[in-house]
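Sanity check

After download, print the first record. It should look like this:
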Amino acid sequence: MKKHTNPLDSLINHLDSALRTIGGAEGHGQRANPAEKFHDTKLDDTQKKLVSGLMRINHAGEIAAQGLYQGQSLTAKLPEVREAMDQAAQEETDHLNWCHHRLNELNSHRSLLNPLWYTGAFGMGALTGLIGDKWSLGFVAETEKQVVSHLDKHLQRLPVHDGKSRAILQQMKSDEQHHATTALDAGGAELPAPAKILMKGLSKVMTLTAFRL
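Expected structure tokens:
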């Protein structure tokens, strides 16, 4: 029999998840790191700085994804939508761990603004959940579409011999495309153009900032 938690238990679980995510604690991943199949290659200083910046952006994006899905799960009205958000958050935990490992291998740091990325995304996720599940799912779909676009650009910028980073981003891209499709199939509504433009603007601010900080 499936165990149901009351609202207080759910809130405590979300707070625990937030503290662990922002604090840098690794979640329980479900899959092996795709980068493990590749040997590390020599990167010069310029290449290492570029790759570190790109992986920091993606790590920050996964921090935001955790906040987004946790916020939506907290306010989603239908049980099946809450379960879908929880499952997506778990899959994003894999991405978060992989990016974290790669940053460690590069002797680079995580974004100093991770608390901001998480809380901002959590607020947006909770708000869309309150507005309605179809808009919450639509927000997920549009977010994932924009993430896929960013990943395509990052894959083009990576040094061709950096197999580790490339394997991570390629798997992330495949997963994000699946999340977008799943959200739409579950009844996600197409967001209005102004909302998409605003999301792109906020995403650009995050990517430009996280690359350095």
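If your output differs, re-run the checksum step. Summary of this record's structure: The chain has a mean pLDDT of 83.
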